UniProtKB/TrEMBL annotation:
<dbReference type="InterPro" id="IPR019734">
    <property type="entry name" value="TPR_rpt"/>
</dbReference>
<dbReference type="InterPro" id="IPR011990">
    <property type="entry name" value="TPR-like_helical_dom_sf"/>
</dbReference>
<keyword id="KW-0802">TPR repeat</keyword>
<dbReference type="Pfam" id="PF13424">
    <property type="entry name" value="TPR_12"/>
</dbReference>
<feature type="repeat" description="TPR">
    <location>
        <begin position="167"/>
        <end position="200"/>
    </location>
</feature>
<protein>
    <recommendedName>
        <fullName>Tetratricopeptide repeat protein</fullName>
    </recommendedName>
</protein>
Length: 346
């Protein structure tokens, strides 16, 4: 049985904040409490309030501010001798590094966070940090390396009855099944994640689960209308909390659904919107996926095969050394598809 979702990154004087609190509200209150703790000479409290500030900045897509905030939180926690707070700050920094596509740094910071969390006896921080490592590997496309870790973390979350972490693990495993073609298994896992998130009032987790369900309904069942309906519901939740990254991925998925349905002009508009959003938050993975969708959509509207192949070649070149193996595979597949088409019309 799962209880109501909570946000362990909201600590100290901010524990009263809900997992569904608007990020702008979190940021405002976090800065207020941080300044108050600094004036009162309480570094441990300042470090924990600074964590919420860093996370709010990160999720709002304010990369530079988030980078400054997590580092300040870590320095303050170290000054206070608070190992657990140091671990949480490193988790935030590692998560930001993954979001920015700095995967080696993400591995290093999240690994350190897991070690410090364990030393401090903070099992939640340890779990979130290991989850961060698992997600980093999954995003890079190393499913074999992190699949078992996802399953281990799912079992631990279920045992603790922690809804939010259970939902995260289910969604990660579901995404791997979806990307390897097991749509039925992916749908079942996304469906369970959506049900748990809704009961636990986890708006963020619910929005991601709905996005996953919409993807399967589109690609497996060709049910465009239902997929767009679910994405519209998820978008409402993203906007309520100002979830910049989740909203951009939602728009990118709307582009995918519309493209598959042959509604290319609408798809182009959604991909362009998502691309602008990803670039604003310096999110290289999302940017690459939006560029890929845009290239494929333009090919069905007004681009020649030669122009499309050139665009895909430039995208492939930009991904060299990025570590985004799954995205690179998608781009290679698209290059092969359009090369065959070009050959067929010669």
């Amino acid at each position: 049985m799962y209880g109501k979702a909570f946000a362990p990154e909201y600590q100290g004087a901010l524990t009263t904040l809900s997992v569904n609190s608007s990020l702008t509200d979190v940021l405002t209150e976090g800065i207020d409490k941080l300044r108050e703790a600094e004036r009162s000479g309480h570094p441990a409290e300042a470090a924990r309030c600074g964590l919420a500030v860093a996370e709010a900045y990160r999720r709002l897509g304010k990369v530079r501010e988030a980078d400054q905030a997590w580092k300040a939180s870590y320095r303050t926690a170290r000054e206070a001798g608070d190992t657990a707070a140091m671990a949480w700050a490193l988790w935030s920094g590692g998560t930001l590094a993954r979001q920015r596509g700095a995967f080696p740094l993400a591995w290093r910071l999240l690994g350190l966070a897991a070690e410090l969390g364990e030393q401090a006896g903070d099992i939640v921080c340890r779990g979130y940090s290991l989850a961060g490592l698992a997600e980093t590997g999954r995003i890079q496309g190393d499913y074999a390396a992190v699949g078992r870790l996802h399953e281990q973390l799912l079992a631990e979350a279920r045992k603790r009855g922690e809804a939010r972490h259970t939902v995260w693990a289910l969604e990660g495993i579901a995404q791997m099944h979806r990307n390897t073609g097991d749509y039925d298994r992916a749908y079942t896992l996304f469906e369970e994640a959506a049900e748990i998130a809704e009961r636990a009032e986890d708006t963020r987790g619910h929005a991601w689960a709905l996005r996953g369900l919409a993807d399967i309904l589109s690609v497996r069942d060709k049910n465009t209308d239902k997929a767009l309906e679910l994405l519209s519901r998820a978008e409402t939740g993203c906007r309520a909390m100002n979830l910049s990254s989740a909203l951009a991925y939602n728009h990118k998925m709307q582009g995918n659904v519309l493209h598959r349905a042959g509604r290319h002009e609408q798809a182009r508009q959604m991909y362009e919107l998502a691309l602008t959003e990803f670039r604003a938050m310096s999110e290289p993975r999302g940017e690459a996926l939006a560029r890929l969708g845009l290239a494929k959509t333009r090919a069905r509207l007004d681009r020649t095969h030669a122009e499309t192949i050139a665009e895909l070649t430039a995208l492939a070149r930009s991904l060299e050394g990025s570590g985004l193996k799954h995205v690179q595979r998608l781009v290679t597949r698209a290059q092969e598809e359009f090369a065959r088409e070009a050959e067929a019309v010669r």
